[in-house]
């Protein structure tokens, strides 16, 4: 028997008496649970599991989750699913994960001023009451550029695969550098999947060497790549460029947060942004103990979304002023806060690859957002 049943514009557990049902707050979870893509399906289940964990651990006894399948590629269909959830009493929406679905879902939720906590990393999806809980390229690039700039870097180059993510990272790099009076001196793209982009690497290497001669120890190159591909490109660039890690800093994104990558000698000395590793490790242990398996990548962000939505719903404070409060919110990925446009600012650590094949924190995450920060 289904645990839940729909009533007239309400969705409530059958075992609760009518008086108890009146006080419930309903949160819709719109995720592609039945996706044909196994990885997407795994991420969706991981997010939902983490949301349930969060509700239990914050003691949210007056919250009901409404699980809704948002697997359709048709955004209009997903908007209809969101509309049904709103009609069934949802006061907040967790999800969706695809950028093209965020605006239609947020449009429906805005009819009752229900906030949407989405997991897309595409900042074009923000607005209309939608907040991006996930870690975006803009947040990552802002953090690593800030750290490098404080370490003396004034000249940035970039070498990466030719895809939408890299283009977003380039834009973020240019904006972050400009805010600090630094320059982006060159960007080269190679065909995605090319494990040995020698021509593009040679172009960047020559540029980096020239910049380093003119501006010693003030040059960095950002490589937004992952996995085996990153190891190949990093090793290639280091072999071509006649520089040392101390002279030219190699910088990455969260894609570098991979123990296989850390063993690549060509990347030693490189640095990348990361959520608070201690907080994430604690969450991973708790998830493993609860579900008997390691959490998928997006699960931790699901926990943050669930804990925040449940806390705010329980206090009847799902308004923009509360969601966007300046001091932010503590999460299993560390401190975070939402900007008025729906983007997220996260307090990230900076990790550096060590010669032994591991990483260490070279700049810890903020514990508080100070006044004016």
Percent of sequence in beta strands:
15-25%
Indicate the percent of residues in helices. 25-40%
| SSE class | alpha/beta
This entry's quaternary arrangement is single chain
Biggest sheet, spatial arrangement of strands = 4-3-5-6-7
Shape by Cα distribution: elongated
Gyration radius from CA atoms, angstroms: 22 Å
Q: Give the CATH architecture of the largest domain.
A: 3-Layer(aba) Sandwich
Topology order in helix (H) and strand (E) letters: EEHEHEHEHEEHEHEHEHEEHHHEEEEE
How many structural domains can be distinguished in the coordinates? 2
Whole-number mean pLDDT:
89
What is the rounded distance between the termini?
51 Å
What name does the CATH topology of the largest domain carry? Rossmann fold
Can you count the helices? Answer: 11
CATH superfamily of the largest domain: Response regulator
Spans of at least 5 consecutive residues whose pLDDT stays below 50 are 1-9
CATH first level of the largest domain = Alpha Beta
Question: How many individual β-strands?
Answer: 17
Task: Please outline the helices and strands.
Layout lengths: L3 E4 L2 E4 L4 H5 L2 E7 L6 H20 L5 E7 L5 H13 L2 E5 L4 H11 L6 E3 L11 E3 L4 H14 L4 E7 L2 H16 L3 E8 L7 H17 L4 E4 L4 H14 L7 E4 L19 E4 L2 H15 L7 H16 L5 H4 L5 E3 L2 E5 L5 E3 L2 E5 L5 E5 L10
Parallel strand pairs: 3-4, 3-5, 5-6, 6-7, 8-9, 8-10, 10-11
Antiparallel strand pairs: 1-2, 12-16, 13-14, 14-15, 16-17
Helix pairs in contact: 2-10, 3-4, 5-6, 7-8
